[in-house]
Amino acid sequence: MLKLDGVAAFVAVADAGSISEAARRLGLAKSVVSERLAELERLLGARLMQRSTRRLALTEAGTAFLTRGRRLLREAEEAVAEIAEQKSLLAGPLRVSAPVSFGTLHLGRALHPFLAAHPGIELTLELDDRFVDVVTDGFDLVIRHGQVHDTRLAARRLATSRRFLVAAPAYLEAHEAPASLDALSAHRAILYANRETDWRFETPSGAVAVRPRPGLRVNNGVMMRGAAVAGLGLALLPTFLCHEELAAGTLKVVDVGVPAEGAQLHAAYPLDRSASAKLRALIEHLRRAFGSPPFWEKGLRLP
Questions:
Q1: Which residue numbers delimit the HTH lysR-type domain (predicted)?
Q2: Fold for domain 163-261?
Q3: pTM of this prediction?
Q4: What angle separates helix 30-44 from helix 4-16, to the nearest 10 degrees?
């Protein structure tokens, strides 16, 4: 009889490209994943993967079975979710990805009451500043700061996020504060390394991109904030990263005459899966937890 854990192991290995990475995603030992994959091949009477020391490749049978295997797993998950919903229970696995800085600062405390209220949910949260592929990396949900352009995904807004150009008081004392976009070229910038380095501002004639002179590139927002507080240059930061520093005065808003382009926090999930009850509940919980306007902007005196 076909076992779903074997199908899950096969799909995970196909998505991850290796048994070791699939084992990490499943939270299992590598030997367990290998055994389940071998058992599935014995039951099907066909080799699903060609194994070598460097890589795994799907056979013709494996390629054909992968689509059906995904469907089997999805239908099983939907059946479990439907029964749980009928019982007014939320249960089962959820795999979520979020940026490191936002996840560390705000997502944890938002998730804690949700998990306490729904102990049947098995949440795996992976914090990663790289741009993960929700579908191929096997996530149920990803939280993104900015627009979601992937047509394979459905996106729900979680919260708004304003951005401000900020600097430490010491930096502004040592360097003449820029009062226009043109004046930014004379300043050192602290930039986010994982995306384009342009700073975008909203002018009466439309959006304008400014490419500042880099003083530091780093792929983590908390480190960008720390560098700005240390007086190393100007940084364009969302309020969820710098609200405490703005309130304390260790960072100041730099007014260049036009506002920086804002962004939104989105929850995105694969379009080819209907949103399960637990996924819908998590999204709605996060929307309430962050608030509108978001709690990190309440009490701030912002321009």
A1: 2-59
A2: D-Maltodextrin-Binding Protein; domain 2 (3.40.190)
A3: 0.71
A4: 110
Closest C-alpha among 293, 229, 227, 236 to residue 259: 236
User: What gap in Å lies between CA 149 and CA 197, rounded to an integer?
Assistant: 19
Q: What is the pLDDT of residues 52-108, one digit of tens each?
A: 656 788 888 888 888 888 888 777 776 766 666 555 578 888 889 999 999 999 999
Token pair, residue 167, equals: 């600097």
Closest CA to 47 of 60, 36, 56, 35: 60
CATH architecture, domain defined by 90-161+264-297:
3-Layer(aba) Sandwich (3.40)
* Helix runs in 125-220, H state only: 169-174
Q: Which of 236, 245, 243 is nearest to 296 (CA)?
A: 243
pLDDT in tens, 277-297: 888 899 999 999 999 889 999
The class level of CATH for 4-85 reads mainly alpha
Q: How many residues does the chain have?
A: 303
